[in-house]
Design brief:
Elements (H helix, E strand, L loop, with lengths): L17 E5 L6 H9 L5 E3 H10 L3 H11 L6 H13 L7 E4 L5 H13 L6 E6 L2 H9 L1 E3 L6 E3 L26 H24 L3 E5 L4 H17 L2
Parallel strand pairs: 1-3, 1-4, 2-3, 4-7
Antiparallel strand pairs: 5-6
Helix pairs in contact: 1-8, 2-3, 4-5, 6-7
The structure holds zinc ion.
Length: about 230
C-alpha cells in the first residue's frame, strides 16, 4: 500500500527511518517490507506509485502506461519526475522504506539532492542478496491461476491436483516473465543497473547486505537487528 495521505499513521509514535530496499526479482522484497512495516516503517513501492498514476490517468500516468505496457524499465527522466512529485508531497519527518527506487546511479544521485535540500539523509540501504540459481528456482517454479491470481510454487507450495487451482479448478499458467531465459535476462539487467548504485551507497557507509535465502520471519528479524546501529547514529 502507498501511504500518500498526509495524516496517515500520524498518532503512532513511529521512529521515522528513511530506508531503501534493493534486491533482485524473487528475493522476497515485498514480504520483507511488509514484515518490517509491522515494526516501524511505511512501505513505499515505486511500482505501486506508477500504477496509481496510470489508474488515475494523470499526465504522468499516460506516459508511464506506455513504458509499463512494453515491459521496459521506466526511463530515469520519467522515474525522477514521478518520484520527485511523491517526495515533495510528504512531510519531511515522514519515514519510508522505498522499494524499486532508486534503481540507477543517476536516480540515486538525484534522490540525495532532494534529501539534502530538505536537510535529510538516508539512514540505511538494505541490499537483499540471492544467488542467481536460487532466484531462478524460486521464480521458474512459480505458477499462477489466471482467474483469481493465486500463486503456487511447484516444489514448496504445489496445488493438490497437478496443474489445477485449488480454489477454482482453473488450469494454472506460467507467466511469460517467469520463464528461465527471461528471468536470467532480467537478472542481467538488474545487476548491470544496480551494481553502481550499491557501490555508491557502500561508499557512503550506509549499505546493509543480507543473504535472503532464509525463512521470511527470520529474515525480517535479522534485518531489523542489523538496522539498529544505523538508526542509532543519526
Ligand atoms: Zn483459481
Amino acid at each position: 500500500m502507498v501511504d500518500a495521505s498526509p495524516g496517515a499513521s500520524q498518532d503512532a509514535p513511529k521512529r521515522s527511518a528513511r530506508l531503501v530496499l534493493i534486491g533482485p526479482p524473487g528475493a522476497g522484497k515485498g514480504t520483507l517490507a511488509e514484515n518490517l512495516c509491522s515494526f516501524s516503517f511505511d512501505h513505499i513501492s515505486s511500482g505501486e506509485i506508477f500504477r496509481g498514476h496510470v489508474r488515475n490517468q494523470t499526465s504522468l500516468g499516460q506516459r508511464l502506461e506506455k513504458s509499463l505496457a512494453d515491459g521496459q524499465l521506466v526511463s530515469d527522466d520519467l522515474t525522477l519526475e514521478t518520484m520527485k512529485k511523491w517526495f515533495w508531497s510528504r512531510k519531511p519527518n515522514q519515514g519510508f522504506l522505498l522499494d524499486g527506487f532508486p534503481r540507477t546511479l543517476p536516480q540515486a544521485r538525484a534522490f540525495d539532492e532532494w534529501l539534502e535540500s530538505r536537510s535529510l539523509k538516508l539512514d540505511a540501504v538494505i541490499h537483499l542478496y540471492l544467488e542467481e540459481d536460487a532466484v531462478v528456482e524460486r521464480i521458474a517454479h512459480r505458477r499462477v491461476c489466471p482467474k483469481d491470481g493465486r500463486v503456487y510454487h511447484l516444489l514448496y507450495n504445489p496445488p493438490a491436483k497437478e496443474g489445477i487451482c485449488d480454489d477454482c479448478g482453473t488450469e494454472l499458467i506460467q507467466r511469460p516473465d517467469d520463464r528461465e531465459p527471461i528471468i536470467r535476462e532480467r537478472l542481467r539487467i538488474y545487476r548491470q543497473k544496480t551494481e553502481p548504485v550499491l557501490a555508491y551507497y557502500r561508499e557512503q557507509g550506509i549499505l546493509l547486505t543480507q543473504d535472503s535465502d532464509r525463512h521470511a520471519a527470520e529474515l525480517a528479524k535479522t534485518v531489523q537487528q542489523k538496522l539498529q546501529p544505523f538508526l542509532a547514529i543519526r
